[in-house]
Specification:
Strand order of the largest sheet of chain B: 5-6-7-8
Largest sheet of chain A: none
Distance between the termini of chain A: 47 Å
Strand content of chain B: 25-35%
Oligomer: heterodimer
Radius of gyration of chain B: 32 Å
CATH superfamily of chain A: Cytochrome Bc1 Complex, Chain C
CATH superfamily of the largest domain in chain B: Rieske [2Fe-2S] iron-sulphur domain
CATH topology of the largest domain in chain B: Rieske Iron-sulfur Protein
Largest sheet of chain B: 4 strands, antiparallel
Shape of chain A: globular
Distance between the termini of chain B: 82 Å
Order of helices and strands of chain A: HHHHHHHHH
Number of domains of chain B: 2
Number of helices of chain B: 2
Largest interface: A-B, 20 and 13 residues
Number of helices of chain A: 9
CATH architecture of the largest domain in chain B: 3-layer Sandwich
Number of domains of chain A: 1
CATH class of the largest domain in chain B: Mainly Beta
CATH class of chain A: Mainly Alpha
Strand content of chain A: under 5%
Number of strands of chain A: 0
Chain lengths: 223, 180
């Protein structure tokens, strides 16, 4: 039945070349763990992307219960984690995935560094990768505040204090991030907006750039 | 020719078993494993999302409202507070009921929500229609027992009533059982 539907659409829109172009490409022998087991180090980029997808999905579901409001934020997180079916699992996925995505990204960076894959002609992809790194750190920072517990509150105070220490612009940057004079209601809504709208949008754009460049330039050769 | 082949295969293999190609086997195995892993990630999220509709509505508790001795044949309005739990947010809602003793001596507590479009009705609040419930929004009218006279399609709902130790307790709102 699916084949029938697929053929019907394909006859009209010729979609086969589109997904062929995305999915059908040869994996060189030196990056295939089936040939050389040590080639598993080439999986870290894909794993980072996989966990990113999990983060986006679980995050979307978490917003069904979460409210970014200083009175109710903690209560809503506690509620979704203890009262809602599979709440612990879904928040667990987002919580642990957040750390894991940093770990995987770091390993991916190490692989790229030690295989020299950042060298010409792939310098631009290294730069985009670094931008992705900063966006991920930003996602981690803004997401950390959202449960609005003591750890989140004081961690954010410390972070903003660090931003404050930047010469000249520091105090302005701090107040901009804080959305006011104190870490409070406006900080929480601001971090929430940045966490679920601004940074994910930037992240997706950067990822598209990252992947297009990989396809244009191919995977770097063996050592 | 084909008959011979069929016969040949049938003699070697148990009937009803078809050869599966290596490609097909791998497709099924990889597809199955992928489906298993994807469902492992997705099912918790789906269950998480639909959780509220799977919760049974809480059976309304009875709330102490007023002494039986204060109830007359004439409807009187009494308000009472309901503790409600809305997810992680608990609050108190103020509800009211028009309570009277009917001719059979039963205590009837009517909900003040008009059955037309949900405005709040009042007793004896329209000079043109004495001794009736009247809704100021669209002129719906009801008898003392809550029977709909004009505009509204159904009689007023009532609260389930429990009398205990000289006090009236009100529970859930149910369709009116005292008028036909």
């Amino acid at each position: 039945m699916f084949k029938g539907i697929y053929n019907w659409v394909d006859e009209r829109l010729d979609i086969t070349p589109i997904w062929r172009d995305v999915a059908d490409h040869e994996v060189p022998e030196h990056v295939n763990p089936a040939h050389h087991f040590s080639a598993f180090v080439y999986c870290f980029g894909g794993l980072t992307f996989f966990i990113t997808v999990i983060q986006i999905l679980s995050g979307m579901f978490l917003t069904m219960y979460y409210v970014p409001d200083i009175i109710n934020a903690y209560g809503s997180v506690e509620y979704l984690q203890t009262k809602v079916a599979f709440g612990q699992i879904v928040r667990g996925m987002h919580h642990w995935g957040a750390s894991l995505v940093i770990v995987m990204m770091f390993l991916h960076t190490l692989r790229v560094f030690f295989t020299g894959s950042y060298k010409a002609p792939r310098e631009m992809n290294w730069v985009v990768g670094m931008l992705i790194f900063f966006v991920m750190i930003g996602l981690g920072l803004t997401g950390y505040l959202l449960p609005w517990d003591n750890k989140a509150y004081f961690a954010t105070r410390v972070t903003l204090q660090i931003a404050d220490s930047i010469p000249v612009v520091g105090p302005y940057l701090k107040e901009l991030m804080q959305g006011g004079q104190i870490v409070g209601a406006e900080t929480l809504t601001r971090f929430f907006a940045v966490h679920v709208f601004f940074l994910p949008a930037v992240l997706l754009l950067l990822l598209v750039g990252h992947f297009i460049m990989i396809r244009r330039q191919g995977i770097s050769g063996p050592l | 020719m084909s008959n011979q082949n069929d016969h040949h295969e049938a003699s070697q293999k148990p009937p009803g078993r078809k050869e599966m190609s290596r490609r097909q086997f791998l497709t099924y195995t990889l597809g199955g494993a992928t489906a298993y892993m994807v469902s492992g990630a997705v099912l918790p999220m789906i269950r998480f999302a639909v959780d509220p509709i799977l919760h049974k509505g809480s059976k309304g508790n009875f709330i102490k409202v007023v002494e039986v001795s204060k109830i007359t044949n004439e409807p009187q309005e009494f308000s009472f507070e309901l503790q409600q739990q809305d997810g992680w947010y608990s609050s108190t809602a103020t509800l009211s009921a028009w309570i009277r003793k009917n001719d059979k001596g039963e205590i009837v507590a009517l909900s003040p929500v008009c059955k037309h479009l949900g405005c709040t009705i009042g007793w004896n609040n329209d000079k043109g229609y004495p001794d009736e419930y009247h809704c100021p929004c669209h002129g719906a009218r009801y008898t003392k027992d809550g029977k709909n006279l004009a505009v509204a399609p159904k009689p007023l709902d009532e609260y389930t009533v429990k009398v205990d130790n000289g006090w009236i307790y009100l529970g859930q709102i149910v369709p009116n059982k005292h008028v036909s």
